[in-house]
Specification:
With 165 residues, the chain is mainly beta. 2% of the residues lie in helices and 50% in strands. The strands form five sheets. Strands 2, 9, 12, 14 and 15 form a five-stranded mixed beta sheet that branches. A five-stranded antiparallel beta sheet has the order 3-13-8-16-6, with no helix packed on it. Strand 10 and strand 11 form a beta hairpin. It is globular and about 55 Å long. The chain starts with a strand and ends in a 6-residue tail after the last strand.
Amino acid sequence: MKITATPLTAEAFAPFGEVLDTSGAPDKIINQGLCGRYHDCATLDFDEGGTAGISLFQAELRALPYELTLLERHPLGSQAFLPMSMDGFLVIVAPDDAGKPGVPQAFLTASGQGINFHRNTWHGVLTPLSGSGLFAVIDWIGDGINLEEWELETPVLVEGPDTAT
């Protein structure tokens, strides 16, 4: 199977989570007019057994076409990926199909975009395509098991708009 990554939009991504985006005017100007605040961009959804935590992830750069072999989800909390550079990255998601991933979709973020996955959303691993690969990740921290992985029997080839055949 092959899929083509498309530009990330709030509308297309809505079933899976929220797009955190710095395009357009900020909601509020603060700090003596020197800082724009994009306010309350994501809904953090965490099970009562844990708390929100901020971690730093250093991910290896990947390239398109990309071979998708693993999807994962987090049943106890939402998960946000915030690049610590202005570089875009690949986001892969899949609807739930009776407890397993359905047909995946792929998106390419623009500069200044991050994402927040809804709780229990099947998604690919952190996949930076350029830049440093350094991300701030906001997710559930606690003693429970908040990771379910699904290895695909047949890999899915993710192409970019420029590499699609």
